[in-house]
Here is the input.
Amino acid sequence: MIEQDILQVLDTSVSPKRKAHILGVAQTARQLAQRHGADPQKAYLAGLLHDLARGLDGEEALQQAHRYGIAVDAYTQAHPEILHGPIAAAWAHEKWGINDQSLLHAVCQHTLGGVPMDTLSRILYLSDAIEPNRDYPGVDALRALAQRDLHAALCASMEQSIAYLRDRRLPPHPTTLAALKALKNEEEFA
Here is the structure.
Protein backbone atom coordinates (compact mmCIF):
# COMPACT_ATOMS: atom_id res chain seq x y z
CA MET A 1 0.00 0.00 0.00
CA ILE A 2 2.78 2.44 0.89
CA GLU A 3 4.56 1.64 -2.36
CA GLN A 4 1.46 2.44 -4.42
CA ASP A 5 1.06 5.75 -2.60
CA ILE A 6 4.72 6.62 -3.22
CA LEU A 7 4.36 5.73 -6.90
CA GLN A 8 1.38 8.11 -7.12
CA VAL A 9 3.48 10.84 -5.51
CA LEU A 10 6.21 10.18 -8.08
CA ASP A 11 3.65 10.58 -10.88
CA THR A 12 2.66 14.03 -9.66
CA SER A 13 5.71 15.44 -7.87
CA VAL A 14 8.87 14.64 -9.82
CA SER A 15 9.99 15.07 -13.40
CA PRO A 16 9.83 12.07 -15.75
CA LYS A 17 13.63 11.94 -15.76
CA ARG A 18 13.79 11.92 -11.94
CA LYS A 19 11.05 9.27 -11.80
CA ALA A 20 13.01 7.05 -14.21
CA HIS A 21 16.08 7.46 -12.01
CA ILE A 22 14.14 6.67 -8.83
CA LEU A 23 12.59 3.55 -10.36
CA GLY A 24 16.01 2.49 -11.66
CA VAL A 25 17.52 2.87 -8.19
CA ALA A 26 14.64 0.95 -6.59
CA GLN A 27 14.96 -1.93 -9.05
CA THR A 28 18.75 -2.00 -8.76
CA ALA A 29 18.52 -1.95 -4.96
CA ARG A 30 16.07 -4.86 -4.99
CA GLN A 31 18.37 -6.87 -7.27
CA LEU A 32 21.49 -6.12 -5.21
CA ALA A 33 19.62 -7.01 -2.00
CA GLN A 34 18.66 -10.38 -3.47
CA ARG A 35 22.26 -10.91 -4.56
CA HIS A 36 23.85 -9.89 -1.26
CA GLY A 37 21.43 -11.28 1.34
CA ALA A 38 19.42 -8.20 2.30
CA ASP A 39 15.65 -7.69 2.29
CA PRO A 40 14.69 -7.01 -1.36
CA GLN A 41 11.36 -5.36 -0.50
CA LYS A 42 12.96 -3.00 2.00
CA ALA A 43 15.69 -2.15 -0.51
CA TYR A 44 13.06 -1.43 -3.18
CA LEU A 45 11.13 0.84 -0.81
CA ALA A 46 14.32 2.70 0.15
CA GLY A 47 14.99 3.22 -3.54
CA LEU A 48 11.51 4.65 -4.10
CA LEU A 49 11.97 7.09 -1.23
CA HIS A 50 15.58 8.19 -1.68
CA ASP A 51 15.09 11.16 -4.05
CA LEU A 52 11.60 12.36 -3.16
CA ALA A 53 13.06 15.66 -1.89
CA ARG A 54 15.64 16.07 -4.67
CA GLY A 55 13.54 18.67 -6.46
CA LEU A 56 13.67 21.16 -3.60
CA ASP A 57 15.61 24.32 -4.30
CA GLY A 58 18.32 25.35 -1.85
CA GLU A 59 16.17 27.64 0.28
CA GLU A 60 13.36 25.07 0.50
CA ALA A 61 15.86 22.37 1.49
CA LEU A 62 17.27 24.55 4.26
CA GLN A 63 13.75 25.34 5.49
CA GLN A 64 12.82 21.66 5.53
CA ALA A 65 16.06 20.79 7.32
CA HIS A 66 15.23 23.38 9.99
CA ARG A 67 11.67 22.07 10.26
CA TYR A 68 12.86 18.51 10.90
CA GLY A 69 15.87 19.36 13.05
CA ILE A 70 18.36 18.12 10.47
CA ALA A 71 21.87 19.37 11.19
CA VAL A 72 23.21 21.88 8.69
CA ASP A 73 26.97 22.37 8.70
CA ALA A 74 28.91 24.92 6.66
CA TYR A 75 29.23 22.47 3.75
CA THR A 76 25.50 21.71 3.57
CA GLN A 77 24.71 25.41 3.97
CA ALA A 78 26.78 26.01 0.83
CA HIS A 79 25.40 22.89 -0.94
CA PRO A 80 21.86 22.42 0.42
CA GLU A 81 20.92 19.95 -2.32
CA ILE A 82 22.72 17.25 -0.32
CA LEU A 83 20.05 17.55 2.37
CA HIS A 84 17.52 15.76 0.16
CA GLY A 85 18.23 12.32 1.68
CA PRO A 86 17.59 13.26 5.30
CA ILE A 87 14.55 15.30 4.24
CA ALA A 88 13.14 12.35 2.26
CA ALA A 89 13.63 10.14 5.33
CA ALA A 90 11.77 12.68 7.49
CA TRP A 91 8.93 12.79 4.95
CA ALA A 92 8.79 8.97 4.86
CA HIS A 93 8.41 8.87 8.62
CA GLU A 94 5.87 11.71 8.74
CA LYS A 95 3.74 10.90 5.67
CA TRP A 96 3.79 7.11 5.68
CA GLY A 97 4.71 6.29 9.28
CA ILE A 98 7.84 4.44 8.25
CA ASN A 99 9.78 3.69 11.41
CA ASP A 100 12.30 1.15 10.15
CA GLN A 101 15.57 2.73 11.26
CA SER A 102 17.71 0.80 8.78
CA LEU A 103 15.55 1.97 5.88
CA LEU A 104 15.45 5.58 7.07
CA HIS A 105 19.19 5.51 7.72
CA ALA A 106 19.84 4.23 4.19
CA VAL A 107 17.76 7.04 2.68
CA CYS A 108 19.67 9.57 4.81
CA GLN A 109 23.06 8.18 3.78
CA HIS A 110 22.50 7.60 0.07
CA THR A 111 24.29 10.79 -1.03
CA LEU A 112 27.27 11.13 1.33
CA GLY A 113 27.60 7.71 2.91
CA GLY A 114 28.21 7.57 6.63
CA VAL A 115 29.75 5.78 9.55
CA PRO A 116 28.60 3.12 10.08
CA MET A 117 26.84 1.93 6.95
CA ASP A 118 24.77 -1.22 7.23
CA THR A 119 24.12 -3.48 4.24
CA LEU A 120 20.97 -1.63 3.18
CA SER A 121 22.79 1.73 3.28
CA ARG A 122 25.58 0.28 1.18
CA ILE A 123 23.13 -1.14 -1.33
CA LEU A 124 21.18 2.11 -1.70
CA TYR A 125 24.31 4.28 -2.04
CA LEU A 126 25.67 1.98 -4.71
CA SER A 127 22.32 1.59 -6.49
CA ASP A 128 22.11 5.36 -6.81
CA ALA A 129 25.47 5.32 -8.59
CA ILE A 130 24.90 2.36 -10.93
CA GLU A 131 21.20 2.29 -11.80
CA PRO A 132 20.54 1.63 -15.51
CA ASN A 133 20.04 5.31 -16.43
CA ARG A 134 23.51 6.29 -15.24
CA ASP A 135 26.04 6.75 -18.00
CA TYR A 136 29.58 7.79 -17.11
CA PRO A 137 33.05 6.34 -17.66
CA GLY A 138 33.52 3.23 -15.54
CA VAL A 139 29.87 2.63 -14.64
CA ASP A 140 29.72 -0.73 -16.44
CA ALA A 141 32.77 -1.99 -14.56
CA LEU A 142 31.22 -0.76 -11.32
CA ARG A 143 27.97 -2.58 -12.13
CA ALA A 144 29.86 -5.82 -12.75
CA LEU A 145 31.88 -5.41 -9.55
CA ALA A 146 28.67 -4.79 -7.55
CA GLN A 147 27.44 -8.24 -8.57
CA ARG A 148 30.57 -9.90 -7.18
CA ASP A 149 31.69 -7.74 -4.27
CA LEU A 150 29.41 -5.15 -2.68
CA HIS A 151 32.16 -3.80 -0.43
CA ALA A 152 34.71 -3.32 -3.22
CA ALA A 153 32.09 -1.71 -5.47
CA LEU A 154 31.04 0.68 -2.71
CA CYS A 155 34.65 1.73 -2.09
CA ALA A 156 35.24 2.20 -5.82
CA SER A 157 32.05 4.26 -6.15
CA MET A 158 33.02 6.54 -3.28
CA GLU A 159 36.52 6.94 -4.66
CA GLN A 160 35.03 7.92 -8.05
CA SER A 161 32.73 10.46 -6.40
CA ILE A 162 35.60 12.01 -4.47
CA ALA A 163 37.77 12.15 -7.59
CA TYR A 164 34.91 13.72 -9.57
CA LEU A 165 34.54 16.48 -6.98
CA ARG A 166 38.28 17.09 -6.71
CA ASP A 167 38.59 17.27 -10.52
CA ARG A 168 36.10 20.12 -10.35
CA ARG A 169 38.00 21.73 -7.47
CA LEU A 170 35.16 21.01 -5.06
CA PRO A 171 35.88 19.60 -1.64
CA PRO A 172 34.32 16.23 -0.82
CA HIS A 173 32.10 16.25 2.23
CA PRO A 174 33.89 15.13 5.41
CA THR A 175 31.21 12.47 5.92
CA THR A 176 32.10 10.82 2.62
CA LEU A 177 35.79 10.90 3.46
CA ALA A 178 35.09 9.36 6.87
CA ALA A 179 32.85 6.70 5.31
CA LEU A 180 35.52 5.69 2.81
CA LYS A 181 38.16 5.58 5.53
CA ALA A 182 35.93 3.34 7.67
CA LEU A 183 35.28 1.06 4.70
CA LYS A 184 39.02 0.82 3.97
CA ASN A 185 39.64 -0.02 7.65
CA GLU A 186 37.15 -2.89 7.33
CA GLU A 187 39.30 -4.30 4.52
CA GLU A 188 42.39 -4.20 6.73
CA PHE A 189 40.71 -6.22 9.46
CA ALA A 190 38.85 -8.66 7.21
